[in-house]
């Protein structure tokens, strides 16, 4: 759809339970999509969380409005504080669409606003990566309520599409995945840039680098990856390796203890958080990307590794099967099975013909289906079709 075909004064009220400087999958998607739709005005309402952040911040075509007292409890009260802020904005400006990311606190604020302004179109985007059916009854009840009230639902995977359709049989449901900044993740670096990073991380010439980019939480299965390291140490031909763990999270202390217990601590590089601008360089020194997830909404980190030209290994959960086709665009491993994962890593690290095939197929797929430019165009069409 051409830019001119959308009302240049289109304003969208967007609710998200977190936003910059707190960046996860949903927050990154909002940023990437909004900046590619410069003719649309976004008012983004989010909890403040800390008094160090300004209450109002303008970023290009977006105005960020942080609500609450500036503490962690702002999330709990966000359905009410977000609603009240939105109510005042709606009385002053002409909004046609309210859009909430994830069926949680932000969507609660959007639902309340819709309740008092029934003519507003309520779009809900599902990006949840947890095992939704296994959560406690209160969370499941509130999520179902919000999904039922949405006029339009977008989902990032077929797994979430099936989930949403079971709950809301009337809403229009669209599958629009998260994407990748292809230009950023596919860029090339000089030998000096990459070798300098490798030296700084303690990676020696000839080392195979097994990389994961993950929050250190149980659902991402990093404990399985560490158990796999023990097997690689003792049973297979891949012993000259480093396990590069990029990310932070509440499970880190337990994972460090496990690594020491299994005598693989010296094989692991704990890189901590790495900014999105720097992440492609870390991926470029990687031999394989692995995340043995127990649940996954989509898995943007896999897509970024693919764009960087790194073969990937993942589990058949959530949205991963949407893009990972076994031995075509990546390799599947079994859930909670370190022995199988060790075999799959060994296969990747010792089969150049397979690796070349995976990298080539994945790159084509990423450019065609998971480029942020394409995805922003799908949202442009969605917003325009509401009139």
Topology:
Layout: E1 11-16, H1 25-35, E2 41-47, E3 56-59, E4 62-67, H2 78-92, E5 97-101, H3 105-116, E6 121-126, H4 137-149, E7 152-155, H5 158-167, E8 172-175, H6 182-185, H7 191-201, E9 208-213, H8 222-234, E10 241-246, H9 252-261, E11 268-272, H10 279-284, E12 288-291, H11 300-307, E13 312-315, E14 331-333, H12 338-349, H13 352-369, H14 372-384
Textual characterization of the structure:
The protein is an alpha/beta fold and 387 residues long. 40% of the residues lie in helices and 18% in strands. It has helices at 25-35, 78-92, 105-116, 137-149, 158-167, 182-185, 191-201, 222-234, 252-261, 279-284, 300-307, 338-349, 352-369, 372-384, and strands at 11-16, 41-47, 56-59, 62-67, 97-101, 121-126, 152-155, 172-175, 208-213, 241-246, 268-272, 288-291, 312-315, 331-333. The strands form two sheets. An eight-stranded mixed β-sheet has the order 3-4-2-1-5-6-7-8, with helices on both faces. Strands 11-10-9-12-13-14 form a six-stranded parallel β-sheet, sandwiched between helices. The radius of gyration is 22 Å and the shape is elongated.
Mean pLDDT across all amino acids = 92
Strand content: 15-25%
Strand order of the largest sheet: 3-4-2-1-5-6-7-8
Q: Could you say which overall geometry the principal axes of the C-alpha atoms support?
A: elongated
What is the CATH-assigned architecture of the largest domain?
3-Layer(aba) Sandwich
Tally of DSSP helical segments:
14
CATH homology group of the largest domain: Glycogen Phosphorylase B
**What is the helix content?**
40-55%
Largest sheet: 8 strands, mixed
Question: Which consecutive residue ranges, at least 5 long each, have pLDDT under 50?
Answer: 1-6
Protein structure class: alpha/beta
Distance between the termini: 14 Å
Secondary-structure element string: EHEEEHEHEHEHEHHEHEHEHEHEEHHH
Number of domains: 2
Rounded to an integer, what's the Rg over CA atoms?
Answer: 22 Å
The CATH class label of the largest domain is Alpha Beta
In the CATH scheme, what's the topology name of the largest domain? Rossmann fold
Number of strands: 14
């Amino acid at each position: 759809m051409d830019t001119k075909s959308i009302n240049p004064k289109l304003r969208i009220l967007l609710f998200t339970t977190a936003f910059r400087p707190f960046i996860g999958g949903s927050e990154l998607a909002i940023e990437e999509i909004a900046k590619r739709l410069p003719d649309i005005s976004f008012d983004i309402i989010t909890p403040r969380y800390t008094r160090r952040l300004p209450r109002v911040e303008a970023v290009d075509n977006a105005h960020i409005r942080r609500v609450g007292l500036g503490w962690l409890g702002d999330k709990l009260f966000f359905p009410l504080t977000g609603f009240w802020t939105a109510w005042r904005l709606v009385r002053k400006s002409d909004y046609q669409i309210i859009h909430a990311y994830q069926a949680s606190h932000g969507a609660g604020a959007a639902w309340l606003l819709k309740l008092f302004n029934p003519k507003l179109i309520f779009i809900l985007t599902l990006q949840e990566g947890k095992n939704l059916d296994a959560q406690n009854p209160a969370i499941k009840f509130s999520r179902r309520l919000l999904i039922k009230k949405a006029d339009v639902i977008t989902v990032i995977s077929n797994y979430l599409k099936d989930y949403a359709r079971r709950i809301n049989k009337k809403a229009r449901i669209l599958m629009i995945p998260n994407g990748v900044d292809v230009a950023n993740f596919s860029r090339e670096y000089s030998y000096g840039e990459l070798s300098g990073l490798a030296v700084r991380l303690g990676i020696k010439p000839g080392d195979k680098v097994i990389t994961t980019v993950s929050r250190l939480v149980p659902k991402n299965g990093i404990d399985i990856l560490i158990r796999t390291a023990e097997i690689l140490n003792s049973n297979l031909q891949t012993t000259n390796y480093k396990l590069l763990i990029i990310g932070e999270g509440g499970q880190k202390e337990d994972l460090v203890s496990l690594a020491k217990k299994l005598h693989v601590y010296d094989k692991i590089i704990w890189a901590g958080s790495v900014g999105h601008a720097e992440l492609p360089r870390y991926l470029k020194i990687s031999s394989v990307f692995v995340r043995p997830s127990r649940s996954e909404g989509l898995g943007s980190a896999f897509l970024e590794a693919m764009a960087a030209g790194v073969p990937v290994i993942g589990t058949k959960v959530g949205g991963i099967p949407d893009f990972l086709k076994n031995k075509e665009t990546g390799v599947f491993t079994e859930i909670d099975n370190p022995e199988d994962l060790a075999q799959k890593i060994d296969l990747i690290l010792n089969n150049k013909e397979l690796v070349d095939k995976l990298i080539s197929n994945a790159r084509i797929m990423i450019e065609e289906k998971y480029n942020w430019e394409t995805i922003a165009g799908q949202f442009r069409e969605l917003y325009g079709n509401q009139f």
